Amino acid sequence: MPADTFDVLPLLRPDLPPPAIRWNGSPEFNLVGGHNDADSVPVDGLIEAATRALKREGRTLSMYGLHSGPLGYRPLREFIARKLERDAGIRCTPDEVLITSGSLQGLDLVNGVFLSPGDTVIVEDMNYAGTLSRLKRCGADIVGIPLDQDGMRMDALEAALADLARRGVRPKFIYTIPTVQNPTATVMSMERRARLLELAQHHGVPIFEDECYADLTWDGVRPQALRGMAGDDRVVHIGSFSKTIAPALRVGYLVASWPLMSRILALKTDGGTGALEQMVLAEYCSTHFDTHVRALRKTLRHKVDILMDALRHSFGASATFEDPAGGIFLWVRVPKQVDTSKLAQVALQAGVAINPGAEWMTDAEVGRRWLRVCFAHPEEAVLRNGVARLAEVCRREFDVPAAAGGVHR
Amino acid sequence: MPADTFDVLPLLRPDLPPPAIRWNGSPEFNLVGGHNDADSVPVDGLIEAATRALKREGRTLSMYGLHSGPLGYRPLREFIARKLERDAGIRCTPDEVLITSGSLQGLDLVNGVFLSPGDTVIVEDMNYAGTLSRLKRCGADIVGIPLDQDGMRMDALEAALADLARRGVRPKFIYTIPTVQNPTATVMSMERRARLLELAQHHGVPIFEDECYADLTWDGVRPQALRGMAGDDRVVHIGSFSKTIAPALRVGYLVASWPLMSRILALKTDGGTGALEQMVLAEYCSTHFDTHVRALRKTLRHKVDILMDALRHSFGASATFEDPAGGIFLWVRVPKQVDTSKLAQVALQAGVAINPGAEWMTDAEVGRRWLRVCFAHPEEAVLRNGVARLAEVCRREFDVPAAAGGVHR
Question: What pLDDT score was predicted for residue A402?
């Protein structure tokens, strides 16, 4: 035992994730993260909403849970229930809606009630990095199912479920992002949704449906949610205001019936989700949500057009992608000689941040051919110049042709 | 496998806590919970702060972490660093402050980096129920140290540490609420603080210091924090705005140096703490914190006087307590024949909610002689009538004398 001091670090638990890296500000060309368009934040509307809500019931901030109890601010739950019925075909009462601190907390809570180490879960093989990292931390065995333009492939799911059944494994759930899938930005067809429910039913496996991007299809139409089609807790549904209003407001929600909700709620020991944000969102959204999101979709569509144009211009045939169905990111495939994990590091030194595909796929090796580019936050010039800079790095590091057809090779 | 549906519940992990109980509104006499005085919520100040902050930088809500990175909104961290130096003798930079979603998240993060199942922790034997339940869920062996009016008893701590050392056990940390301890509302003396640091040093055990009530001593003076005396990560410090501004704003903070902070931050995978609440707090507190808290302390002192008066009036010698050093709760001892766990149930049926002591002590059996009464939220009449109602229940159920000296027995 040392005389003057001792080191605390050896006392930490041995299985911690790697330490965080110091944040040094945003890179010059920030093409990562779920950030959104800055000009689209409805600042005046939020000020008005905050003023009105606080004047009316600011005193209730003196109570944990306001006057609404642990599920969250009741007017916000009422708005969500109405909206989910209208837009997603989900029938639920406000008491079947839990306000969460972002949909990330929804992920943690659902993982928390279902998963013990060694449990099996099924996911789309291209997937949200935050889901994959969480499932790994839970010690889950992750089975990845390939996607195509209509979402998760049901032939592959059927085969995987049959294979697991043969081995006596009953997965805890099938996690899916059916509408504007992350990172592929595809929308699962209605036929596949029906088939997914059949397969899940047949194998007795619940579905965990994450629809945090579902309001952002370009035409504003979203297919009925799986939760709506099933009508009960065979589908647990989560969503968020991060992508439609602002990500720094940490407000999401979860839909479940009381028998399951009561188990989930017992894990939500956080003293409630931030009440001011809930009040402001309820106040703002009840009158402005639709108008706001309609305009936001247009802005995002414009930005993805710029991004796709920039990619075609700077990469030519060396970057392939599908026109996304909505959302805030583009999933891009690059030639074989590029390792996007290495590219991400080198590009960052050149001021360009991208998401390397290895973190976004269940098979990290395959992911090295892919990268995710987020287009909602960067201004037009940042998108264009960031892509140009990225193409330069690709050419320099991996000998990738600079424009269409390899003209510059 | 059933034909039409299947039950999801058998798929849940087997070791979940009991399901949550449905919330049915607040009881008539709500004498539990960390709620605060409703009239003291600075509603106008918060509206002004929200307006100013949103006007100036509302657009930054489009980014996770605003422009401040994962530690939280920088102006709030700057305010906290200044305040901690002035009021608690803690020298830290804003980059050694992490904004958390209430101090509850601080508890989760510190437990999370230190504790594996089977680890030993030392705590004050009368303690915050939320800390005890968390430690139990982490699978910790909890060693309780008795307190007196000067806080944790150092003779008992010394003996416990020596005993553990003999058995080859090095505790992961000593958790303490030194200033306005929960539930005893005592303040640890400076002599004890110095001795605590010595003992911790000698045994190589870090201290986990929870000062979420420390701004609420009646005279506004708080002794130097243990973190300030130690100057490094041998003491991890957490605090909160829940008790000084409003509990429903879920904003707390944690102080640690980078080597430890980088490990803690890696566990904070929530996409940041609610940004609007951080912005509003930073804006409001930088100019109004001191004035506000000075007035709040007076209000709370007035309310505890009413509570103590009501207890003397209705219970006489049957309820004993010490005049608290500050805070929002009173820790009350009742005669032997009363079981406060049973009392809490019966009283709730009569409309009075109290905290039974069994949940607030490491030795639950001893706790059955104690109860915690929260006085910040209830109005004067609710305090008086709630205590009268509680006394009635006590008399009826446990044959407790109704007033001083057992006159009514």
Answer: 64
Name B339's Cβ contacts closer than 8 Å, sequence gap at least 6. B368, B398
Report pLDDT digits (tens) over A230-244. 999 999 999 999 999
Is A101 touching B (CB cutoff 8 A)? yes
| B208 vs B107: CA distance, rounded Å | 9
pLDDT tens-digit series, residues B52-89: 999 999 999 999 988 899 999 999 999 999 999 999 99
- Å from A376 to nearest chain B CA? 9
Q: By the CB < 8 Å criterion, does B26 face chain A?
A: yes
What string of DSSP letters covers B248-297? TS--EEEE--HHHHHHHHTT--SS-S-HHHHHHHHHHHHHHHHHHHHHHH
Locate all alpha helices (DSSP H) within A58-144, ordered by sequence.
74-88, 102-114, 129-137
Residue with tokens 């914190």: B289
What residues of B are in contact with residue A71 (Cβ under 8 Å)? Answer: 23
Q: Phi/psi class of residue B123: alpha, beta or left (left: φ > 0; alpha: ψ in -120 to 50)?
A: beta
Is A276 touching B (CB cutoff 8 A)?
yes
The alpha carbon of A354 is separated from its chain's Cα centroid by a whole number of angstroms, namely 16
Cβ within 8 Å of B, A 205-234: 206, 232-234
Characterize the bridge pairing of strands A207-210 and A235-240: parallel
Sequential DSSP letters for A54-67 = HHHHGGGGGSTTTT
Which candidate, A322, A76, A134, places its Cα nearest to that of A84? A76
| Cβ-defined contact of A134 to B269 (cutoff 8 Å) | yes
**Distance of residue A189 Cα from the nearest chain B Cα, in angstroms:** 23
A349 touching B (Cβ < 8 Å): no
Residues of A in contact with B63 (CB under 8 A): 26, 33, 35-36, 38, 247-248, 377
Residue in B38, B55, B260 closest to A8 by CB: B260
In 3D space, the residue among A78, A73, A79 whose CA is nearest the CA of residue A94 turns out to be A78
Q: Where are the beta strands (DSSP E) in A136-248?
A: 141-145, 147-148, 151-152, 173-176, 207-210, 235-240
Residue B136: burial class (beta carbons within 10 Å; 0-12, 13-18, 19+):
exposed
Q: How far apart are the C-alpha atoms of A283 and B70, rounded to whole Å?
A: 28
User: Quick one: which of A81, A105, A107 has its CA closest to A94?
Assistant: A81
pLDDT tens digits, B20-62: 999 989 999 999 999 999 999 999 999 999 999 999 999 999 9
Q: pLDDT for B222-255, tens place per residue?
A: 999 999 999 999 999 999 999 999 999 999 999 9
8 A C-beta contact, residue B46 and residue B280: yes
ipTM of the complex: 0.95
How big is the A-B interface in CB pairs under 8 Å? 305
Q: Confidence band (pLDDT; 50, 70, 90) for B402?
A: low
Contact, A35 vs A247, CB < 8 A? yes
Q: How does pLDDT run across A300-320, given as a tens digit for each residue?
A: 999 999 999 999 999 999 999
B270 touches chain A (CB under 8 A): yes
Question: 10 Å Cβ neighbour count for B10?
Answer: 8
Burial class (CB in 10 A: 0-12, 13-18, 19+), B313: middle
Query: Given an 8 Å threshold on Cβ–Cβ distance, is A270 in contact with B33?
Result: no
Cα–Cα dist A250/B227, whole Å: 30
Chain B within 8 Å of A377 (Cβ-Cβ)? yes
The beta-carbon neighbor of A59 closest among B41, B65, B101 is B41
Rounded (5°) CA angle B95-B100-B106: 100
Q: What is the DSSP letter of A22?
A: P
